[in-house]
Amino acid sequence: xxxxxxxxxxxxxxxxxxxxxxxxxxxxxxxxxxxxxxxxxxxxxxxxxxxxxxxxxxxxxxxxxxxxxxxxxxxxxxxxxxxxxxxxxxxxxxxxxxxxxxxxxxxxxxxxxxxxxxxxxxxxxxxxxxxxxxxxxxxxxxxxxxxxxxxxxxxxxxxxxxxxxxxxxxxxxxxxxxxxxxxxxxxxxxxxxxxxxxxxxxxxxxxxxxxxxxxxxxxxxxxxxxxxxxxxxxxxxxxxxxxxxxxxxxxxxxxxxxxxxxxxxxxxxxxxxxxxxxxxxxxxxxxxxxxxxxxxxxxxxxxxxxxxx
Length: 309
Description:
Number of strands: 0
Oligomer: single chain
Largest sheet: none
């Protein structure tokens, strides 16, 4: 039997595990610099490469899931994404060298990418009469997951558990979700009476509005992840805040992002979407510049956090 309400709630929970995959490495970026006592400290390039490796895994997961979930069903990707995240967290906690660490970070991103692509279609199909509300709630839980990740990681660093044990603290989330999701039946993402013919990619990429949306999505993702990936390290190294506070800065950023999504979800239908995006783009540029060049650390950090909104 299909249980829409329960499966929707579990998808909200899976969005939390997705957030773990995306937000874990930024919190530990400065801690990872001296992660391996048997080798020299990691360079800034090596630390930056970790972020790129994770995003690479995320993108690959999205590209794999997009065309395959319609054909093979959403369940294997929802369950598989959580299992990959669980395995990656385990490998992170015991990684003996940089190569192993990079591999674990890649699969952490891959698991998050599988979930990122499949959760929205599942929730949309399960809630045909309240799609907007259900999807707003779903993406708000990403921010909840970011907050959980940051709090667990920051507390672990604060009390001396270290980043390896923090990975184990977060490990139960994807394991429990995988077990629960495995026991449920998932809806088909393609209607039985739907025309099996697909839009040719050449035709799709010939649509100017489609290309415009791709560019806007690319820039929106860069706006969010460009700040989120480096904010803890920037707060610690450039603004001279203590190590534990770097994660707190990312927590504030996530809360601001949640607030922005809630405001857009509540008032978006009453506002011109293009005007809203125009103002948000302009404000983001200003806030990036203020965060980079303001001489007062508290004001610079506030500008960085406000980018989330």
